[in-house]
Design goal:
Blueprint lengths: L1 E13 L2 E7 L7 H8 L19 E7 L6 E7 L5 E2 L3 H15 L3 E6 L2 E8 L2 E7 L19 E3 L2 E7 L3 E6 L8 H9 L9 E7 L5 E7 L4 E3 L3 H13 L9 E4 L5 E4 L6 E6 L1 E13 L2
Parallel strand pairs: 2-3, 4-6, 11-12, 13-15
Antiparallel strand pairs: 1-2, 1-18, 3-4, 4-5, 6-7, 7-8, 8-17, 9-10, 10-11, 12-13, 13-14, 15-16, 16-17
Length: 288
């Protein structure tokens, strides 16, 4: 492995979903190698000795402050080097990062999945997530039929795209599921030609849901997944577990997110976005 020089980064998290943020004006010639190297949970970078090594991805952000409201172009490179079309918590972090630089409480975020509007209010960031889709071509599925409460590799799942594909399974208690054992076969099932995230959910007893997600690209469970939280509520509405347009709390291990999936219009994802600290990372330009 060869190193050219270093680049400054900031560390953010949204309910435990953590990211290194790099200003796109600072050139990183090989973004996939940079993400694979520094996001590694065993050998990646840490802010200090008490900080967990690595991250769930690197957000390369390009601020375009001349617009009103300001815009930020978001590219999320995941720990395996792939680019994610959308990331709910990543978008909320991108909005917080842009707001720090512009002072605006409204940010437009350009992602591979489309442009999303975010608003900020007293540390809480809410982002439009688009309209969830169950259509086979949107998920996508290797089938002409929607996948609704169908068994796939031992779990009964419903497939929905909330910017990225999710296979959602409702279980009695998320803590009773060995997610690292059951998720990989679903994540790589032939039914999902592009792969899928695997999300499980169980009622929290207060009208909301607990959530755990095995993320494609991370290839493991994360502390929070925003697109997964939206997928839980979208699937719950589709199956009749919930109804109406009121916000619903979804709680991954890292905290609580507020999700609204209206009968018409874009879903909303809200929660905190926290700036943990700053550092410098080696720019990796070649891997052996």
């Amino acid at each position: 492995m060869s190193v050219l020089n270093t680049v400054p980064f900031e560390k953010f998290h949204g309910t435990g979903n953590d990211f290194f943020v790099v200003d796109a004006d600072d050139p990183v010639p090989d973004r996939p190698a940079f993400a694979r190297t520094h996001c590694d949970r065993n050998a990646g970078i840490a802010l200090d000795e008490s900080d967990r090594r690595g991250a769930d991805g690197v957000l390369f952000l390009a601020l375009e402050s001349r617009y009103d409201p300001p815009r930020v172009v978001m590219t999320l490179v995941q720990p395996d080097g792939s680019v994610a079309a959308m990331c709910g918590n990543g978008a909320r972090v991108a909005a917080a990062w842009a707001a720090e630089r512009t002072g605006s409480d409204e940010i437009m975020i350009d992602t591979p999945a489309g442009t999303r509007r975010a608003t900020l209010d007293d540390g809480n960031v809410t982002v439009e997530m688009g309209v969830p889709s169950f259509r086979p071509r949107d998920v996508p599925l290797a089938s002409d039929e929607e996948l609704v409460e169908a068994e796939v590799e031992g779990l009964t799942v419903t497939a929905v795209n909330t910017g990225v594909p999710h296979a959602v399974a409702f279980v009695d208690d998320v803590d009773d599921v060995d997610l690292e054992a059951v998720a990989p076969s679903i994540r790589h099932a032939p039914l999902f030609p592009d792969g899928t995230n695997v999300t499980i959910a169980s009622p929290d007893g207060e009208g909301g849901f607990r959530q755990r997600t095995f993320e494609r690209g991370v290839e493991g469970e994360t502390q929070s997944c925003g697109t997964g939280a939206v997928a839980v509520v979208a699937a719950a509405k589709r199956l009749g577990h919930v109804s109406g347009d009121d916000p619903i709390d979804v709680s991954p291990p890292g905290g609580t997110l507020s999700v609204t999936v209206p009968d018409e219009g874009s879903a909303l994802l809200g929660g905190p976005a926290v700036h943990e600290g700053d550092g410098e990372a080696d720019i990796v330009f070649r891997e052996r």
